[in-house]
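User: Structure please.
Assistant: Input sequence and predicted structure:
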Amino acid sequence: MQFEIQDLGPVTKSVRVSIPARRVDAMFSMVYNQFSQKASLPGFRKGKVPMSHIKKLYGDRARFDVTERLVDAGWKALLDENDVVPLSEPKLDAAPVEPGTEFSFTMSFDVAPEFELKAFSDLTVEQEKWSAGDAVVAEDLKHLADQFAEYEDIGERTVAEDGDQVIIDYSGSVNGEVFPGGTAEDAPLVLGSGQFIPGFEEQIIGQSVGSSFDVQVSFPEEYHAENLKGQAAVFACTLKGLKSKKVPEIGPELAEKVGEESIEVLTAKMKEQIEERFNEQGRNKARGALRTALGQQYDFEVPPTMLERAINDRRADFVRKATGDGKDEAEAKAESLTEIKANDQDVTSDIRAYLVVDKIAQTEKIEVGEDDMRTELQKMMQSMGPYAQQILQMYRQPERRAALVQRIREDKVLDFLLTQASVTTVDKDVPQPDHGETDDHDGRDND
């Protein structure tokens, strides 16, 4: 098997593959033999049909099979025996294959452009360095203490107030009929938490322990239970107890609950965690700036296949977001054409950055090992909480694992560049955190 490799342009190659007649004949013999083993004709036992009959019956199909197998063999040999990395499926140009003659065909495909890496020191980027002041750490400690709060029985007061945790029995009905999931005993509810449907908690305020009363509400039109959407309901309730929130003191008590040896150690760790969280965001911003700079630093031609794929991906993302916001799909697709055309230079620059990162990884021998994968998966699992095992299962799929490897590899390359580029450190103070209410339920968990 012989290869003649030609450059059709900076990002396109053509390969003429020549296969000698003896190999062509061997492939025909193998294909005809396989047909012979399965062929069954009147007057002949299975597998005993004369070869002359086989060739007459299956000649056209044999040519198709032989062509397909020889092209596959040529493609595999090209990749195994030559320093060629195609970036697209090959376009095939082949004459009909015939027994006893050499078979030649041509394949053309996109390849990565050849270019010289520029000096890494020419790259300039800003990197944020964050510092958490005492007030910021104190606010986070206060939020942490709130997470370890407990509810204790109220002694003398018997009238429910906003912020109390009430213990109630309730039974809900619509049109006089009790509905499934609408009944509970000794249910805890923090008044003002928004845990129950709108209007429910407000009607408990002012009620006394031991009293029974009705709460009248209407389920929201967007409620998750189809049979309750927009329905007026009555809940027969009994207030059985009141509890008040007790937040641990920010001191030895909180340190003990968290599992630290002292409040000083806990405070130092909180400060470190806050700064690391913001500094990681700063690193990501610096990586993004470096990636953008790489794409703008080079002007080589990009492979058409990569450009087309990137444009299609961006259009699909645009349409998905637009339709998610309620826009008509046909309108979103039309707008995506204008949007991508206006930013086609960004798409090209992004592809250049990808190819430069890939070349730096090869040149500097930057690879992704199992430890890198394990560390990244652990970080992802910690951030996903109850969905951690689903994340782990998802990244066992080869295509997702390959995408994760590519992302980790790119981050390692960009981190390497941060040690080589001209980096200006920008000192910043962590802003005061805003710990608002995060519980935005509009329905009851009991249904």
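The two ends are 70 Å apart (CA to CA).
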